[in-house]
Amino acid sequence: MKNLLKRLMGIDKLEEKKQKLLEETDPKAAATAKGEPYIAVIDTQVNPDNIKNGFFELDWNNEFIEQLLDAGYKGESQEEIVDKWFRTIVSQMLQEDGQSLDREMGYINVIPIDKDKSEVS
Fold first, then answer.
1. N or C: which end of the chain has fewer CB within 10 A?
2. Total number of domains in the chain
3. Are 94 and 88 contacting, i.e. CB atoms less than 8 angstroms apart?
4. Domain containing 1: what range?
């Protein structure tokens, strides 16, 4: 009945337009509104003097953290949980490319920027 009223009054179309606009202007808020996980690389920088040194700035929502927890990742903070996931992704990429994980790669440093953002370098 509620959906019928929405269709008759055109509210369903309005809600669809609102969601599409939100997806275009704020994908994180759109994913969160739908209860979907969200992770994005906001920025990447590489030190021109030392190519092994750089950073990724990541942004995520609570649904992404819940997904990581469900997958078995653990940590004291959201940043630590995302860091463990990020390390897994990097290791998988190296292995898929036939690269050794036992090599000088520097280190990963996670700097919290705010509740749902961190700089990973």
1. N
2. 2
3. no
4. 1-26
Tell me which residue of 114, 103, 115, 111 sits closest to 56, measured CA to CA: 111
SS3 at position 13: helix
CA dihedral defined by 14, 17, 19, 21, rounded to 10 degrees? -140
What's the pLDDT tens digit per position in 55-70? 889 999 999 999 999 9
The CA distance from 83 to 110, in Å, is 7
Three-state secondary structure call for residue 107? coil
**pLDDT, tens digit, for every residue of 6-47?**
555 566 676 677 667 666 789 999 999 999 999 999 999 998
Structure tokens at 80: 């630590």
What value does the CA radius of gyration of the chain take, rounded to a whole number of Å?
19
Q: What are the φ/ψ torsions at residue 60 (nearest 5 degrees)?
A: -150, 170
- Establish if 32 belongs to a structural domain: no
Chain-centroid distance of CA 31 in Å reads: 11
**H/E stretch holding 119:** strand 117-120
